[in-house]
Specification:
- By secondary structure, the protein is an alpha+beta fold.
- It has seven helices and eight strands.
- A hairpin with a 5-residue loop joins β4 and β5.
- It is elongated.
């Protein structure tokens, strides 16, 4: 990408640094920004009526995140986005980002590649959630995201896998016994 294009993209971005557990965006707010994770990790989550946290996705460095439906339709979000660890992000207003995508073909291609990657992970995860045992879901998580094990607390991994912390602890203990 040309230096001029990078400067143009950077000039319209606002950089933020989030502390661990800081919420970027909450349920009910309208997602008004495209967010690129420079470093650290964000997670998209919801808390059910019974108080259980459900994590839909993790967004590590070099990935985009947002509530797509809220961003596209400018409606209140059904999810929150928070920092799993100290995180640096770049944010663009929707109009600015759409203008940049139209002006800079490389940005459009880069954004589409990251979105496609997220779509593939989400589809695979839905299929696993519907058909795999908790052990199989955990094994897939370990194989797909091995670096997350040292970065995330077990409660977050359990919330992502849709299992209790007790079940996750049992699975991990059984694996150590093998």
């Amino acid at each position: 990408m040309a230096e001029e294009a990078i400067r143009r993209i950077s000039d319209l971005a606002v950089q933020h640094t989030l502390r661990r557990n800081e919420v970027l965006f909450s349920v009910g707010e309208i997602c008004r920004h495209k967010v690129f994770v420079v470093s650290g990790m964000l997670y998209t989550f919801n808390i059910s009526a019974d108080g259980n946290q459900h994590i839909l996705q993790f967004s590590p460095g070099n990935s985009w995140t947002l509530d797509v439906e809220s961003y596209d339709k400018q409606i209140p979000s059904a999810v929150s986005i928070g920092a799993a660890e100290p995180t640096t992000i770049l944010c663009w207003q929707k109009n600015d980002f759409e203008m940049l995508r139209a002006e800079i073909p490389q940005l459009k291609q880069f954004a589409e590649e990251l979105i496609a990657r997220n779509t593939h992970y989400s589809r695979k995860r839905i299929l696993l959630s519907l058909s795999a045992t908790p052990e199989e879901r955990y094994d897939d998580f370990v194989q797909t995201f091995p670096e997350y094990l040292s970065r995330l607390p077990l409660r977050m991994i359990a919330a992502y896998l849709g299992i209790s912390i007790k079940t996750l602890t049992r699975i991990r203990h059984a694996q150590l016994q093998r």
